[in-house]
């Protein structure tokens, strides 16, 4: 029997106001722009096309000029606000845009100036593109601001493709939590589900690529908190920074588009060890050659950043939006499940009854469905390491007075046949192959390899030395190397 069509309501929004909504689990919402102009965190809506939101999405439809939207479905919260910080964000975008334009003219006008001189020359330093680090406490809207600024840059009509860098290991960015990643953004990032906070990545979908899928470069840290292994985090940041440098050297036009780094709340929070926090921020500032730090709504952090970097960089305080929703622990757990499920199965959101031709951020729904494969492999097929675990002999077995040396960077082989291996339900990062040229290999190469995909160990058969893995890619894992962290996932 057909379900009755869900109730639709029209909202007319005055210029510079936004319609905010929050969804309950298992519900969805379709928003159609009937007239005027509207955008979701900087990504414009096309007229007469239903945009679908799900997985407890919390977002806002903002309009600069005024609009009428039709909303179908029942959010748990919905209201219109006329107090938004969007003009402050737009002014900031204009300032960043001027930096890009100046950097582009310097690039076009200074082809004979060699790169080393460029760094020394103060006038060309003034023509540097924006490389922005966004810091702020929990729920200040950092990710949203990163998205808005990136979307405004790609919409500017200058052909910019800024690099968006996700340092938030609690959130997952394009793939799964526990990662840091970067991707050049060529078209506006849509918002439709917290499972894809930065839009869809192409990594888990080799067969069906949605047209706006991004191909990020991903590194596996493996834990939600930077305190767990801050040395590893710093090393990964520097490795990612090197790759960004290579990309910029090869593609100066991408370089002038600049870069925007979204960070986790632990970069700002007093609960993180101050030294670790400062070290990781310093690694980001140096590795990505940051020249602007945006501090979102936090006076103390602003003063702290001024003190640390005020003489070298621009430190800018920006207001927090009243619409940012405080996300509790159980919500974050559910979002983690949505992210892993989406990584494996693609994004499946059922439109409210009666809504036809719904899109996810402008993409047809079927484009985003995947079929993962469950495969049985032998223990020896895959070599699995944990970084920095303490697995040495007990202290009593050490020579008297000898300190225990625990390297946070030490790769420790994981034996799946050991009861405490922690492999069951573990999320594993499958690494790219080692350098085929033996002369280029080095001891710690494992720490610097990017991720090519993720898998989850769904069962372990110790007597037969076999395990079952679930992965969205059909490729064989035989002979590959994977890393375990502290994330586990079970299908629900
Ligand atoms: N203006 C708004 N109206 C409605 N919801 C919003 C608005 N701005 C942000 N949100 C929502 O609030 C939530 C938190 O925002 P966001 O993720 O940007 O904050 P954050 O500071 O990056 O969070 P975290 O501390 O977890 O890193 C998200 O679900 C986001 O979609």
Description:
The structure is a single chain. By secondary structure, this protein is an alpha+beta fold. The chain folds into three domains: 7-84, Sandwich (Jelly Rolls); 86-109 and 116-318, P-loop containing nucleotide triphosphate hydrolases (Rossmann fold), CATH 3.40.50.300; 373-392 and 406-488, Beta Barrel (Elongation Factor Tu (Ef-tu), domain 3), CATH 2.40.30. It has nine helices and 25 strands. It has helices at residues 86-109, 115-120, 122-126, 142-155, 230-250, 252-257, 274-287, 299-309, 329-345; strands spanning 8-13, 17-22, 29-36, 39-40, 43-44, 51-53, 58-63, 67-72, 77-81, 131-135, 163-166, 179-184, 217-220, 259-262, 292-296, 314-318, 359-360, 363-364, 373-378, 382-387, 411-413, 426-431, 451-461, 466-471, 480-488. The strands form five sheets. The chain has a seven-stranded mixed sheet, with helices on both faces. Strands 19-24-23-22-25-20-21 form a seven-stranded mixed sheet, with no helix packed on it. Helix 8 links the parallel strand 15 and strand 16. Helix 1 (86-109) crosses helix 4 (142-155) and helix 5 packs parallel to helix 7 (274-287). The longest helix has 24 residues, at 86-109. The model is unreliable at 111-123 and 203-212 (pLDDT under 50). The structure holds adenosine-5'-triphosphate. Adenosine-5'-triphosphate binds at residues 18, 20, 58-60, 136, 138-144, 168, 171, 194, 264-265, 321, 323-325, 327.
């Amino acid at each position: 029997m057909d379900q009755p069509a869900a109730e639709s309501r029209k909202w007319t929004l005055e210029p510079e106001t936004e319609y905010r909504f929050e969804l309950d689990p298992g519900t969805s919402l379709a928003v159609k722009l009937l007239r005027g102009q509207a955008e979701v965190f900087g990504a414009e809506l096309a007229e007469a096309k239903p945009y679908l939101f799900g997985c407890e999405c919390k977002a806002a439809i903002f309009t600069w000029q005024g609009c009428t939207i039709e909303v179908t479905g029942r959010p748990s919260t919905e209201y219109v606000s006329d107090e938004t910080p969007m003009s402050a964000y737009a002014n900031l975008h204009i300032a960043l845009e001027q930096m890009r334009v100046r950097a582009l003219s310097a690039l076009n006008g200074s082809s004979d100036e060699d790169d080393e001189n460029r760094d020394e020359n103060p006038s060309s330093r003034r023509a540097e593109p924006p490389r922005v680090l966004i810091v702020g406490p929990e729920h200040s809207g950092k990710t949203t601001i990163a998205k808005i600024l990136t979307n405004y840059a790609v919409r500017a009509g200058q052909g910019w493709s800024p690099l968006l860098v996700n340092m938030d290991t609690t959130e997952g960015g394009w793939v799964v939590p526990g990662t840091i990643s970067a991707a050049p953004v060529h078209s506006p990032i849509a918002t439709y589900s917290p499972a894809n906070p930065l839009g869809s990545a192409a990594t888990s979908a080799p067969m069906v690529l949605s047209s706006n899928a991004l191909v990020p470069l991903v590194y596996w840290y493996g834990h939600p908190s930077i305190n767990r292994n801050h040395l590893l985090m710093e090393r990964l940041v520097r490795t990612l920074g090197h790759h960004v440098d290579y990309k910029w050297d090869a593609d100066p036009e991408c370089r002038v588009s600049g870069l925007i780094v979204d960070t986790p709340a632990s970069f700002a929070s007093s609960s993180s060890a101050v030294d670790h926090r400062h070290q990781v921020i310093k690694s980001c500032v140096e590795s990505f050659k940051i020249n602007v730090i945006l501090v979102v709504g936090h006076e103390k952090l602003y003063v702290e950043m001024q003190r640390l970097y005020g003489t070298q960089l621009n430190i800018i305080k920006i207001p927090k939006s009243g619409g940012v929703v405080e996300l509790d622990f159980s919500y974050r757990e559910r979002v983690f499940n949505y992210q892993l499920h989406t990584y494996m199965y693609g994004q499946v959101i059922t439109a409210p009854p009666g809504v036809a031709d719904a899109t996810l951020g402008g993409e047809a729904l079927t484009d985003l469905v995947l079929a993962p494969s469950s495969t049985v492999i032998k223990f020896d097929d895959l070599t699995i390491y944990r970084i920095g675990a303490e697995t040495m002999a007990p202290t009593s077995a050490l020579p008297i007075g000898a300190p225990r040396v625990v390297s946070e960077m030490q790769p420790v082989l994981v034996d799946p046949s050991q009861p405490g291996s922690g492999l069951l339900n573990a999320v594993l990062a499958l690494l790219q192959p080692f350098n085929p040229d033996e002369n280029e290999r080095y001891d710690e190469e494992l720490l610097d390899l990017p991720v090519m995909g993720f898998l989850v160990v769904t069962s372990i058969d110790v007597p037969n030395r076999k395990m079952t893995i679930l992965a969205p890619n059909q490729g064989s894992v035989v002979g590959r190397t994977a890393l375990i962290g502290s994330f586990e996932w079970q299908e629900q």
